[in-house]
Amino acid sequence: MRIAVQNKLLVLMLVCGVSFSQTTNTVVKAKIEIEKVGENLKISGIAENLSNLAQDFSYKLSIIYKRSNSENQSNSIQEGLVCIKANKTQKVSDALINLKKEDEVIVLLLFYNEKKQLIGKDRVVLNDAKSEKLQILDLDGFETKGIVSNETKTKLGKDFYDRYFNRYNDEKINSSKIVVVGEELSFGRNTNITIVIGNEVIYEFMARPDDEFMSEIVDNSIYATILYFKNLENQEKYLIQY
User: Fold this and answer.
1) Which residue range forms the structural domain that includes residue 129?
2) Angle formed at CA 152 by CA 151 and CA 153, multiple of 5 degrees
3) What is the pLDDT of residue 71?
4) What is the predicted pLDDT for the residue at 195?
5) Distance CA 194, CA 206 (A)
6) 227 with 161, same domain?
7) Residue 188 falls within a domain, yes or no?
8) CATH number for 211
C-alpha cells in the first residue's frame, strides 16, 4: 500500500510538471509577424498582455538558418527586457532577412518571466526551397526538430558549439526540444559554457583552448544530452503506463 501511494505521488508530481510546462501564452502571448519588404522579409516579434496587470518579462527572438544542402546552421539572436501595460499589445523586436532558395529559416520568439520560466512562445518556418512561392508556415501544434541554438560569445565558445552540433547530428538525436549552447564570461579570461534544455542546465564547464580537452568535453556533453533525453522518454512512458 505504501509503495502504491508513493507511485501515485510520483505520477502526480510528473503530471504537474508536464502541465506547468504547457501553460504558455496564457498571461503574455507571443506572436511572429512576417511582412515582405522589397526583396527582403521583415520579421516582427509581438507581445500581447492578456492579463489585467502590467507584465515585466524578457524576450528572445532567434532566427536560425539551416542550409538544405548541408547540416550547417547559423543563428541570429535579439534579446532584451520589456514591460507591457495591462491588456495591451506591443512590438518587442524587429529583424530584416534575405531568404535564399537553398535556406530554411526557423524563427523562434520566446518570453521568460523573472524566474527564467518560459511563459510565451511562437514558431514560424520560412522555406522557399520546395515551391516557387514563399511558404510561411505557422508551427503551432507541430514539432521543430534538431535545433541547437548558438548563444556563445567567443571564438572558443563557437568552436565548441560547432563540434557539439556536428556530433549532435552524427548521433541523430533530433529532439523536438531546443538545445541551447550558452556562454558566460567569468573572471580573467575564463569562460563558462552551458548546455541548457528547457530551463535545465544539463552540462557546464570552464572552457580552455586545448584540443584534447575540448574533444573530451564534447564526448561528455553529448553523453549528458543523450542521457537527459532517455530519462525524459522513460518519464513519458511511465506516465502512459500509469
Assistant:
1) 28-133
2) 120
3) 58
4) 94
5) 9
6) yes
7) yes
8) 3.30.160
* pLDDT, mean of each 10-residue run, the chain (242 residues): 37 33 78 87 92 92 74 76 92 87 84 87 71 39 65 90 90 82 80 88 92 94 92 70 48
Question: What's the pTM?
Answer: 0.54
Q: Grid coordinates in use for 198? A: 528547457
> Which residue pairs from 134-143 have beta carbons closer than 8 angstroms and sit at least 24 positions apart in sequence?
134/36, 134/99, 136/34, 143/176
pLDDT value, residue 140: 41
CA Rg, the chain, in Å?
Answer: 20
